[in-house]
Design goal:
Largest sheet: 7 strands, parallel
Bound molecules: NADP nicotinamide-adenine-dinucleotide phosphate
Structural class: alpha/beta
CATH class of the domain at 7-130 and 162-186 and 252-264: Alpha Beta
Strand content: 5-15%
Number of strands: 12
CATH superfamily of the domain at 7-130 and 162-186 and 252-264: NAD(P)-binding Rossmann-like Domain
Strand order of the largest sheet: 3-2-1-4-5-6-10
Helix content: 40-55%
Radius of gyration: 19 Å
Shape: globular
CATH architecture of the domain at 7-130 and 162-186 and 252-264: 3-Layer(aba) Sandwich
Distance between the termini: 53 Å
Order of helices and strands: EHEEHEHEHEEEEHHEEHEHHHH
Number of helices: 11
CATH topology of the domain at 7-130 and 162-186 and 252-264: Rossmann fold
Length: 284
Protein backbone atom coordinates (compact mmCIF):
# COMPACT_ATOMS: atom_id res chain seq x y z
CA UNK A 1 0.00 0.00 0.00
CA UNK A 2 1.01 3.60 -0.69
CA UNK A 3 4.33 3.05 -2.41
CA UNK A 4 3.93 5.57 -5.25
CA UNK A 5 2.91 9.03 -3.99
CA UNK A 6 3.60 9.42 -0.32
CA UNK A 7 2.48 12.97 0.19
CA UNK A 8 0.39 14.27 3.07
CA UNK A 9 -1.96 17.21 3.02
CA UNK A 10 -1.47 18.89 6.40
CA UNK A 11 -4.50 20.96 7.37
CA UNK A 12 -3.82 23.64 9.95
CA UNK A 13 -0.34 23.32 8.53
CA UNK A 14 0.85 26.77 9.55
CA UNK A 15 0.30 26.60 13.29
CA UNK A 16 0.83 24.59 16.44
CA UNK A 17 0.68 20.90 15.56
CA UNK A 18 0.34 21.09 11.77
CA UNK A 19 3.57 23.02 11.18
CA UNK A 20 5.50 20.48 13.26
CA UNK A 21 3.80 17.54 11.55
CA UNK A 22 4.77 18.88 8.12
CA UNK A 23 8.39 19.54 9.11
CA UNK A 24 8.84 16.09 10.59
CA UNK A 25 7.17 14.31 7.69
CA UNK A 26 9.69 15.88 5.35
CA UNK A 27 12.51 14.82 7.68
CA UNK A 28 11.14 11.28 7.41
CA UNK A 29 11.22 11.37 3.61
CA UNK A 30 7.56 12.02 2.82
CA UNK A 31 6.07 14.94 0.96
CA UNK A 32 4.06 17.39 3.07
CA UNK A 33 1.77 20.11 1.76
CA UNK A 34 0.75 22.63 4.38
CA UNK A 35 -2.73 24.07 3.95
CA UNK A 36 -4.48 27.03 5.56
CA UNK A 37 -6.05 30.36 4.68
CA UNK A 38 -2.81 32.30 5.14
CA UNK A 39 0.79 31.33 4.43
CA UNK A 40 0.54 27.60 3.73
CA UNK A 41 1.90 25.81 0.65
CA UNK A 42 -1.64 25.76 -0.68
CA UNK A 43 -4.71 27.88 -0.02
CA UNK A 44 -7.32 25.90 1.92
CA UNK A 45 -10.42 27.40 3.48
CA UNK A 46 -13.07 25.18 5.04
CA UNK A 47 -15.65 27.77 3.99
CA UNK A 48 -14.51 27.88 0.35
CA UNK A 49 -14.99 24.38 -1.10
CA UNK A 50 -13.44 25.51 -4.38
CA UNK A 51 -10.07 25.46 -2.58
CA UNK A 52 -10.42 21.75 -1.64
CA UNK A 53 -9.76 19.89 -4.93
CA UNK A 54 -6.48 21.67 -5.58
CA UNK A 55 -5.29 21.02 -2.05
CA UNK A 56 -6.05 17.31 -2.43
CA UNK A 57 -4.46 16.82 -5.86
CA UNK A 58 -1.70 14.23 -5.64
CA UNK A 59 -1.89 13.48 -1.93
CA UNK A 60 -2.54 10.04 -0.46
CA UNK A 61 -2.91 10.90 3.24
CA UNK A 62 -4.29 13.78 5.29
CA UNK A 63 -3.67 15.30 8.72
CA UNK A 64 -7.18 16.48 9.54
CA UNK A 65 -7.63 19.62 11.64
CA UNK A 66 -11.32 20.52 11.55
CA UNK A 67 -12.55 24.16 11.58
CA UNK A 68 -11.36 25.77 14.81
CA UNK A 69 -13.47 27.73 17.32
CA UNK A 70 -16.64 26.12 15.95
CA UNK A 71 -18.92 23.29 16.99
CA UNK A 72 -20.86 22.62 13.77
CA UNK A 73 -18.77 21.29 10.90
CA UNK A 74 -19.60 17.59 10.36
CA UNK A 75 -21.26 18.28 7.00
CA UNK A 76 -18.30 20.27 5.71
CA UNK A 77 -15.88 17.59 6.86
CA UNK A 78 -17.98 14.79 5.30
CA UNK A 79 -17.97 16.61 1.95
CA UNK A 80 -14.22 17.08 2.18
CA UNK A 81 -13.66 13.41 3.03
CA UNK A 82 -15.84 12.32 0.08
CA UNK A 83 -13.65 14.42 -2.17
CA UNK A 84 -10.48 13.10 -0.53
CA UNK A 85 -11.56 9.52 -1.02
CA UNK A 86 -12.33 10.18 -4.69
CA UNK A 87 -8.97 11.92 -5.12
CA UNK A 88 -7.04 8.88 -3.90
CA UNK A 89 -6.50 9.62 -0.21
CA UNK A 90 -6.17 6.35 1.68
CA UNK A 91 -5.45 7.43 5.27
CA UNK A 92 -6.58 10.25 7.56
CA UNK A 93 -5.16 11.11 10.97
CA UNK A 94 -7.72 13.21 12.83
CA UNK A 95 -6.76 15.68 15.56
CA UNK A 96 -9.70 15.19 17.94
CA UNK A 97 -9.82 16.12 21.62
CA UNK A 98 -9.35 14.22 24.88
CA UNK A 99 -12.56 12.36 25.68
CA UNK A 100 -13.80 13.11 22.15
CA UNK A 101 -15.95 9.98 22.17
CA UNK A 102 -17.94 11.62 24.99
CA UNK A 103 -18.17 15.12 23.55
CA UNK A 104 -21.57 16.83 23.89
CA UNK A 105 -23.91 16.10 20.97
CA UNK A 106 -23.89 19.79 19.94
CA UNK A 107 -20.16 19.49 19.22
CA UNK A 108 -19.32 17.66 15.97
CA UNK A 109 -16.25 15.82 17.29
CA UNK A 110 -18.11 12.54 17.75
CA UNK A 111 -19.77 12.91 14.35
CA UNK A 112 -16.40 13.29 12.61
CA UNK A 113 -14.96 10.31 14.49
CA UNK A 114 -17.99 8.22 13.47
CA UNK A 115 -17.75 9.41 9.86
CA UNK A 116 -14.15 8.23 9.64
CA UNK A 117 -14.97 4.91 11.26
CA UNK A 118 -17.66 4.30 8.64
CA UNK A 119 -15.47 4.82 5.56
CA UNK A 120 -14.36 1.71 3.72
CA UNK A 121 -11.70 3.10 1.39
CA UNK A 122 -9.85 5.22 3.97
CA UNK A 123 -8.04 4.00 7.07
CA UNK A 124 -7.86 6.40 9.97
CA UNK A 125 -6.16 7.13 13.27
CA UNK A 126 -7.67 9.38 15.92
CA UNK A 127 -5.60 11.52 18.27
CA UNK A 128 -7.39 12.77 21.38
CA UNK A 129 -4.87 14.97 23.14
CA UNK A 130 -5.13 16.54 26.57
CA UNK A 131 -5.02 20.34 26.95
CA UNK A 132 -1.97 21.59 25.14
CA UNK A 133 0.88 23.18 27.12
CA UNK A 134 1.21 25.89 24.47
CA UNK A 135 -2.19 27.28 25.56
CA UNK A 136 -0.26 29.08 28.31
CA UNK A 137 2.34 30.65 26.02
CA UNK A 138 -0.06 31.93 23.37
CA UNK A 139 -3.46 33.59 23.26
CA UNK A 140 -5.53 30.59 24.44
CA UNK A 141 -4.86 30.78 28.20
CA UNK A 142 -2.56 33.78 28.38
CA UNK A 143 -0.68 35.01 31.41
CA UNK A 144 -2.14 38.50 31.88
CA UNK A 145 -0.61 40.75 34.54
CA UNK A 146 1.09 37.58 35.85
CA UNK A 147 -2.23 35.86 36.43
CA UNK A 148 -3.69 32.82 34.64
CA UNK A 149 -7.49 33.05 34.77
CA UNK A 150 -9.31 29.75 34.21
CA UNK A 151 -12.20 28.02 36.04
CA UNK A 152 -10.88 24.69 37.35
CA UNK A 153 -12.27 24.04 40.84
CA UNK A 154 -8.71 23.10 41.79
CA UNK A 155 -8.80 20.19 39.33
CA UNK A 156 -5.82 18.87 37.40
CA UNK A 157 -4.95 18.15 33.78
CA UNK A 158 -2.12 16.14 32.17
CA UNK A 159 -1.06 18.96 29.79
CA UNK A 160 0.71 17.76 26.66
CA UNK A 161 3.35 19.41 24.48
CA UNK A 162 2.17 20.10 20.89
CA UNK A 163 5.53 18.72 19.78
CA UNK A 164 4.61 15.33 21.24
CA UNK A 165 1.16 15.36 19.60
CA UNK A 166 2.87 16.06 16.28
CA UNK A 167 5.34 13.24 16.87
CA UNK A 168 2.48 10.77 17.38
CA UNK A 169 0.67 12.11 14.31
CA UNK A 170 3.78 11.68 12.20
CA UNK A 171 4.13 8.01 13.15
CA UNK A 172 0.53 7.37 12.08
CA UNK A 173 1.06 9.18 8.78
CA UNK A 174 4.39 7.52 8.01
CA UNK A 175 3.00 4.02 8.60
CA UNK A 176 -0.80 4.14 8.29
CA UNK A 177 -1.18 0.38 8.18
CA UNK A 178 0.44 0.02 11.60
CA UNK A 179 -1.93 2.59 13.12
CA UNK A 180 -5.16 1.91 11.20
CA UNK A 181 -8.11 2.20 13.58
CA UNK A 182 -5.91 3.39 16.46
CA UNK A 183 -7.14 5.86 19.07
CA UNK A 184 -4.35 7.61 20.95
CA UNK A 185 -4.80 10.06 23.80
CA UNK A 186 -1.51 11.96 24.03
CA UNK A 187 -0.92 13.36 27.54
CA UNK A 188 1.95 14.81 29.46
CA UNK A 189 3.72 12.74 32.12
CA UNK A 190 1.94 14.33 35.10
CA UNK A 191 -1.45 15.78 35.99
CA UNK A 192 -0.98 19.33 37.28
CA UNK A 193 -3.34 21.83 38.84
CA UNK A 194 -3.32 25.30 37.30
CA UNK A 195 -1.74 26.60 40.51
CA UNK A 196 1.10 24.14 39.97
CA UNK A 197 1.42 25.33 36.36
CA UNK A 198 1.63 28.93 37.59
CA UNK A 199 4.34 27.91 40.07
CA UNK A 200 6.38 26.21 37.37
CA UNK A 201 6.16 29.22 35.06
CA UNK A 202 7.08 31.49 38.00
CA UNK A 203 10.12 29.37 38.82
CA UNK A 204 11.33 29.52 35.22
CA UNK A 205 10.91 33.26 34.68
CA UNK A 206 11.84 34.34 38.20
CA UNK A 207 8.75 36.32 39.14
CA UNK A 208 5.43 35.48 40.82
CA UNK A 209 2.64 34.03 38.66
CA UNK A 210 -0.71 32.98 40.13
CA UNK A 211 -3.84 31.13 39.08
CA UNK A 212 -7.22 32.85 39.44
CA UNK A 213 -9.92 30.17 39.71
CA UNK A 214 -12.77 32.24 38.32
CA UNK A 215 -16.48 31.31 38.23
CA UNK A 216 -17.09 29.28 35.08
CA UNK A 217 -20.12 31.20 33.78
CA UNK A 218 -18.41 34.54 34.32
CA UNK A 219 -15.37 33.29 32.40
CA UNK A 220 -17.38 31.88 29.48
CA UNK A 221 -19.70 34.88 29.24
CA UNK A 222 -16.66 37.17 29.31
CA UNK A 223 -14.96 35.23 26.49
CA UNK A 224 -18.09 35.46 24.32
CA UNK A 225 -18.72 39.12 25.16
CA UNK A 226 -15.12 40.03 24.31
CA UNK A 227 -15.41 38.24 20.97
CA UNK A 228 -12.69 35.69 21.80
CA UNK A 229 -15.09 32.87 20.87
CA UNK A 230 -18.47 32.76 19.10
CA UNK A 231 -21.53 32.30 21.31
CA UNK A 232 -22.20 28.72 20.21
CA UNK A 233 -18.67 27.74 21.27
CA UNK A 234 -19.71 28.17 24.90
CA UNK A 235 -20.84 24.54 24.98
CA UNK A 236 -17.29 23.47 24.12
CA UNK A 237 -15.76 25.66 26.84
CA UNK A 238 -18.32 24.33 29.34
CA UNK A 239 -17.46 20.74 28.42
CA UNK A 240 -13.68 21.24 28.53
CA UNK A 241 -13.63 23.10 31.83
CA UNK A 242 -16.35 20.87 33.29
CA UNK A 243 -14.11 17.83 32.96
CA UNK A 244 -11.42 19.50 35.04
CA UNK A 245 -13.79 21.01 37.60
CA UNK A 246 -15.43 17.63 38.18
CA UNK A 247 -12.06 15.95 38.73
CA UNK A 248 -12.22 14.16 35.36
CA UNK A 249 -9.39 15.98 33.64
CA UNK A 250 -6.99 13.89 31.61
CA UNK A 251 -4.71 11.48 33.41
CA UNK A 252 -1.20 10.56 32.24
CA UNK A 253 -0.88 7.51 30.02
CA UNK A 254 1.93 5.98 27.99
CA UNK A 255 0.51 6.50 24.48
CA UNK A 256 3.24 8.94 23.43
CA UNK A 257 6.06 6.63 24.54
CA UNK A 258 4.29 3.61 23.05
CA UNK A 259 3.98 5.26 19.63
CA UNK A 260 7.17 7.33 19.42
CA UNK A 261 9.52 5.44 21.72
CA UNK A 262 10.23 8.64 23.65
CA UNK A 263 8.73 9.83 26.95
CA UNK A 264 6.43 12.88 26.86
CA UNK A 265 7.81 16.34 27.59
CA UNK A 266 7.44 17.59 31.17
CA UNK A 267 5.82 20.95 31.86
CA UNK A 268 9.14 22.10 33.36
CA UNK A 269 10.95 21.40 30.09
CA UNK A 270 8.22 23.08 28.05
CA UNK A 271 8.32 26.13 30.35
CA UNK A 272 12.11 26.44 30.12
CA UNK A 273 11.86 26.27 26.32
CA UNK A 274 9.05 28.87 26.27
CA UNK A 275 10.35 31.33 28.88
CA UNK A 276 10.86 34.07 26.29
CA UNK A 277 7.12 34.17 25.56
CA UNK A 278 6.41 35.17 29.17
CA UNK A 279 9.55 37.28 29.66
CA UNK A 280 8.56 39.40 26.67
CA UNK A 281 5.45 40.39 28.65
CA UNK A 282 7.69 42.02 31.22
CA UNK A 283 9.74 43.74 28.52
CA UNK A 284 6.67 44.93 26.58
N1 LIG B 1 -5.71 23.81 22.51
C1 LIG B 1 -5.85 22.64 23.11
O1 LIG B 1 -5.58 22.50 24.30
C2 LIG B 1 -6.35 21.46 22.31
C3 LIG B 1 -6.40 20.22 22.92
C4 LIG B 1 -6.87 19.12 22.18
C5 LIG B 1 -7.29 19.30 20.88
N2 LIG B 1 -7.24 20.54 20.32
C6 LIG B 1 -7.71 20.70 18.93
O2 LIG B 1 -6.65 21.10 18.11
C7 LIG B 1 -7.19 21.71 16.93
C8 LIG B 1 -6.34 22.90 16.55
O3 LIG B 1 -5.09 22.41 16.12
P1 LIG B 1 -3.73 23.21 16.32
O4 LIG B 1 -3.64 23.64 17.78
O5 LIG B 1 -2.62 22.44 15.74
O6 LIG B 1 -3.97 24.49 15.40
P2 LIG B 1 -4.02 26.03 15.81
O7 LIG B 1 -2.69 26.46 16.31
O8 LIG B 1 -5.25 26.26 16.61
O9 LIG B 1 -4.21 26.71 14.38
C9 LIG B 1 -5.35 26.52 13.58
C10 LIG B 1 -4.92 26.19 12.15
O10 LIG B 1 -6.10 26.02 11.36
C11 LIG B 1 -6.10 26.97 10.27
N3 LIG B 1 -7.48 27.40 10.07
C12 LIG B 1 -8.26 28.13 10.92
N4 LIG B 1 -9.46 28.36 10.38
C13 LIG B 1 -9.44 27.77 9.15
C14 LIG B 1 -10.39 27.68 8.08
N5 LIG B 1 -11.60 28.25 8.16
N6 LIG B 1 -10.04 27.00 6.98
C15 LIG B 1 -8.83 26.43 6.87
N7 LIG B 1 -7.89 26.48 7.84
C16 LIG B 1 -8.19 27.15 8.96
C17 LIG B 1 -5.18 28.10 10.75
O11 LIG B 1 -4.59 28.80 9.67
P3 LIG B 1 -5.32 30.08 8.99
O12 LIG B 1 -5.88 30.92 10.11
O13 LIG B 1 -4.24 30.73 8.20
O14 LIG B 1 -6.37 29.50 8.11
C18 LIG B 1 -4.11 27.30 11.50
O15 LIG B 1 -3.17 26.77 10.61
C19 LIG B 1 -8.64 22.08 17.28
O16 LIG B 1 -9.52 21.20 16.60
C20 LIG B 1 -8.73 21.83 18.77
O17 LIG B 1 -10.01 21.42 19.18
C21 LIG B 1 -6.76 21.62 21.00
Amino acid sequence: MMKSRQTALVLGGTRRTGSLVAKRLVERGLGARTASRHGGDVLFDWDAPTTHPGALAGVDRVYLVTPVMRVTYAGQVAGFLDLAEAAGVRHVTYLSTYGGDQAPPEVDIRAVEADLAGRGAITHSILRPAWVMQNFSDAHLPVVDWVITVPTGGGAEAFVDATDIAAVAVETLVDPDAHAGARYAPTGPEALTFAEVADIIASVIGRPVTHHDIDRDVWIDGAVAAGFVPADYAVMLRWLTGAIISGNGSRPNDDIEKVTGRPPTTFHDFARRSADAWLSLAAG
